[in-house]
Write a structure and sequence with these properties.
With 77 residues, this protein is mainly beta. It has a single domain, classed as Roll (Ubiquitin-like (UB roll)), CATH 3.10.20.30. Helices cover 10% and strands 35% of the residues. It is built from one helix and five strands, in the order E-E-H-E-E-E. The chain has a five-stranded mixed sheet with strand order 2-1-5-3-4, covered by helices on one side. A hairpin with a 3-residue loop joins strand 1 and strand 2. The N and C termini lie far apart (38 Å). The structure holds FE2/S2 (inorganic) cluster.
Length: 77
């Protein structure tokens, strides 16, 4: 199943397969998500998926038509 994945705040949209790891999708989209352990324990890769915090390294694309991934941003602007 193809899922439309939107990365905010830059509104970059890519298509992904349901179940594909979020980190792979982000990489393909040219979106950089910080990583550390890549095994779910350090929370460096935390993003919000449908308003829920998830760790991108252990989370797959959900089986739904589209989903928004919100990146946490530095607020030093
Ligand atoms: S990279 Fe450590 S939790 Fe994802």
């Amino acid at each position: 199943m193809l899922v439309k994945v939107k990365f905010s705040p830059d509104n970059i949209v890519v298509e992904a397969e349901a179940g594909e790891p979020l980190l792979n999708v982000a990489k393909r989209a040219g979106v950089s998500i910080p990583t550390g352990c890549l095994s779910g324990s350090c929370f460096a890769c935390e993003v919000e998926m449908a308003d829920q915090p998830v760790r991108a390294c252990i989370t797959g694309v959900p089986s739904q038509a589209e989903v928004t991934i919100a990146l946490y941003e530095d607020t030093l602007w």
